[in-house]
Amino acid sequence: MADEANSDVSASKIEVNNQKSDPAIPPEARQRALQEELSSLIDLVGVEPLVDMLLERAFQLGATDIHLDPQPSGLNLRLRLDGILHDILHLEADYAPHMISRIKLISGMNITEKRQAQDGRISNAMLNQARDIRVGTGPTIYGERIVMRLMPDHTQFTSLDELGMHAKQIEAVNKAIQTPHGMILSVGPVGSGKSTTTYSCLEAINSPEQSLVTIEDPVERRIAGVNQIQIDNKIKFGFVEALRGVLRQDPDVIMVGEIRDAETAHIAVRAGLMGTQVLSTLHAGDTGSTLDMFREFQIPRMFLSDAINCIIAQRLLRKICPKSRETYTPDSSTCQILGIDPQRASHTQLVRGVPSDENFHTGYFGRTGVFEVMAVDHELRQLILSGKSGRQVYELAREKGMATLEQSAREKVLSGITTVEELIRVTV
Known about the structure:
Residues 247-261 form the Bacterial type II secretion system protein E domain. The protein is of the alpha/beta class. It has two domains: 28-150, 2-Layer Sandwich (Beta-Lactamase), CATH 3.30.450; 160-427, Rossmann fold. Helices cover 38% and strands 26% of the residues. The protein is globular and about 65 Å long. The termini are far apart.
């Protein structure tokens, strides 16, 4: 019986490898097959092969997170695709503890500790390249919960033109990253692609002539030629301690994974003023509110006006499925949202996705960024120096031609890339 099961597993692995190497099989075909595949294998294979296959499939589908949520009847497995969670599989109660223990074991966690939250990490070779996974566990009333964050493929989204910026925004960011000192900030909520944008900026200036250092929590993608540091709060080696140490090591460019507190903000701003180029991220709503947040950190306005070269606010929008879509004529409310003359509505064709197996019945497949790029010129610096609010600086930048997040999203709707519903969901 065991030999028969092993034979089935081997056959399944051969099928997996063939799918992985066959370019004729589209990603959506693998999406449709995932639920059936895992369900059919759960009774044939042990926990270890099932976990390995789950991780491999999640990477193939472009998932960003895997959720294992305990319920009275067992464990619900969900994948986050294009920012939305999808139910994939339900594990029976007697099978769930083995799955959780296996993931905790390969993540370097204490498998006997079930009462407290733990953080771990899986480093493995997936799809012929190193792909890391950040793992977090925590107790719930029905048992332990696990969330795995899948680190991005370091070969994707390495240049600014892949992110979704339009030509004028790319020009502004390129000008900022060529400045040898000062700060470039990527801002937005959690999961808006800030780190990806920062990595793209870093790739653009990566050269043997410069000393580039990153301070991250965790290191999300490996970059050749860059010294990458991972902080460890367990030994009190945080952003502040790492940043102070790096500044004594003759850096040309420093990437700080995230500015979370006033002390990190002060050190980063001083570094930008002292001749180092600083790239970082911040949780802020838009470009103007970023300036207000730095004031909350008690950064003197003189330092702020001199240090910041560029602020990039961003969001991620789901793209309309390329294989299952339809055109339609906008109604009056849609015209109002998009700034279309209602008299010309009959001459305007918009696109929306049709829910189907190809797109997990959402009508969307993949995501793109929308951006608001504030290049801080002399006029804006004077406004910051005079103590004006972030909103006032924002309005002047708009008058000078800065495209807002909403305007950038509207442009993508009119271009047939995304929908009005996505514009409303993400930017309003």
